[in-house]
Amino acid sequence: MTNNQYLKNQDNEAKAYLEKIKKLLESEVDENVLLAFQLLQSGGIPDELLTHLYAVAITYSNYQISDTALELFEQNAPAELLDFTQKQWTFHNPLSSGENTISNFLETTQDIVHFDTPTLANLILKFGSVGGAYCLKHKTAPTLQVLQKIYRKQWLSLENFGLDELPPEVSSFTDVTYLYINGNKFSDIPDELQALNNVKYINFQDTPLHEAAIQKLEKFFPKAMGSHYANLGRNAFQEKNYSLASKQMLQAIELDNSKANYWNTQGVILGRLKKREKAVRFFDQALALNPHDPLTYSNKAHTLHLLGRKEESLNTANLGLSLYTQNLNTSYNGESSLYFRKAQALFHLKRYDECHEAYDQCLQLNSSFKGAWFNKACAYARQQDKTAMLSCLAKAIELDAQFKQDAPEDPDFEAYWQDADFLALINYKPDNR
After folding, report:
1. Disulfide check for 205: which of 182, 247, 415, 422 has CB 3.0–4.6 Å away?
2. What is the mean pLDDT of the chain?
């Protein structure tokens, strides 16, 4: 054996060199890895280093280094190993691959003689931040060590790992804020998790947790679980399942009653359930927690309007608008909505001139506010100002053709239901009535 193949010797000196080279390759320091390449090129590449070279080749972030590693691997890999890698793994950056793909690949390497699969898995996790599921399942390294490689600042994701049990060592990461345990197979969680005092968000979707486990989560992470139920409630609301939405939001409030938006959302849901008096009480609680939220004022004003409490609706809208005159950090869109609510109240109080002023302020902020144009048309109809009514109604129809169907059924326009200009504008056809 020539001197430039000394690393292939089986003596203790060669073995010591190999261990040093492995450490250089594992260091994630570019200069160290390049030095390891130089030593390998001068001393030969034994089979036991092929795993290291391959891991660097497919995961290392420095492309010059990964390309060099791949070249050395391809020059020294046995034919059957080279054939396997070329057929099974066709890209150099598994960072874009999911845990299932990485796990399946690592499973196939277990039958490859020249690959040390545990080492390969550990290195892929170290260099590429993927493969944690395989490492935990097959215990390629101590569990805490594997989790440390998975953990990112305040973020621990075991998403779609398919784990049969949640490692108690997860509790070591006491500063974790976002915890993802969704897409696993376990049904219980270890009591050690109660040490995670900073969790604000937890996702356990598609993990079949027993009711007792969910109760643990509620006890350990009340705020995070409050957020969980609130999200479920919003989803149910979007699906128009208002009874379920209300149930979920009440669970959120029970776990964390400090969130004004939970109370506000429940108020909106109760409004959809026609429980408007109760809805007002939830809006009041939301405003007690956050008196600077224009959205809640708008929602409350609308609900009071539907209850026929016109003066209260007007006062509530004005309170919301006062936030803007105080230069508080509030939403621009919220201001247009509040002017709309104010105008609605003034309309039903028959204060039409003030009503128009409020709608004009709404439209100055949002000229595409179609409901404001339609309602202005309603007000002008009540004032028997046909020209202004037709102008506003035309603008409303331009924004939403549905108003062609609404206008001939709205009693505000009753005086014009037989008017030729009105009928022409809405493209009236007798058989459509």
Report:
1. 182
2. 92
Distance from C-alpha of 212 to C-alpha of 107, rounded to nearest angstrom: 34
Q: Which of 10, 86, 81 is nearest to 44 (CA)?
A: 10
- Count of CB atoms situated within 10 Å of the CB of 420: 9
**Lookup: tokens for 329:** 């950090």
State which residues form the domain around 65: 1-128
How far from chain centre, in Å, is Cα 286?
24
- Which pTM was predicted? 0.83
pLDDT at 363: 97
Which residues does residue 201 pair with via DSSP β-bridges, in sequence order? 178
pLDDT tens per residue, range 3-59:
566 566 666 776 788 889 999 999 999 999 999 999 888 777 888 899 999 999 988
Q: Which is nearest to 78 in space by CA: 49, 48, 47? A: 47
Cβ atoms of residues 375 and 396 within 8 Å: no
Strand partners of residue 157:
180
Same-domain check for residues 121 and 171: no
Which SS3 state, helix, strand or coil, does residue 154 take? coil
Q: Is residue 47 part of a domain?
A: yes
207: Cβ contacts below 8 Å, ≥ 6 apart: 181, 182, 183, 184, 185, 186
